[in-house]
Amino acid sequence: MITEKIKHILIKSLSLNKVQVTGNNNHINIIAIDDIFNNKSEVEKQQMIYTQLMDYITNKTIHAISIKTYSLKEWKNNQKKIN
């Protein structure tokens, strides 16, 4: 399944602490969590993810992507707001 492949690619290439990937080939939702996102602009964070998935994007295996990135602290704070 494409979501498991994407998750594996992101964990392996970026050594992310946590990644959640849902959706299908038409639309992929990614939540990526790690301190590599500290002190990065939103554009830089997006580019980090897109770069790893470029082959899937250019060959149209993936049509659209929604990406949310968090540092570990941001994720912890975000979770407190949800609960």
Automatic annotation (TrEMBL):
Classification via Pfam families: BolA
Listed InterPro entries: BolA (IPR002634), BolA-like_sf (IPR036065), BolA/IbaG_stress_morph_reg (IPR050961)
Record protein name field: BolA/IbaG family iron-sulfur metabolism protein
Family to which the UniProt record says this protein belongs: Belongs to the BolA/IbaG family.
Coiled-coil parts of chain: none
Domain of life: Bacteria
Taxonomic source organism: Buchnera aphidicola subsp. Melaphis rhois
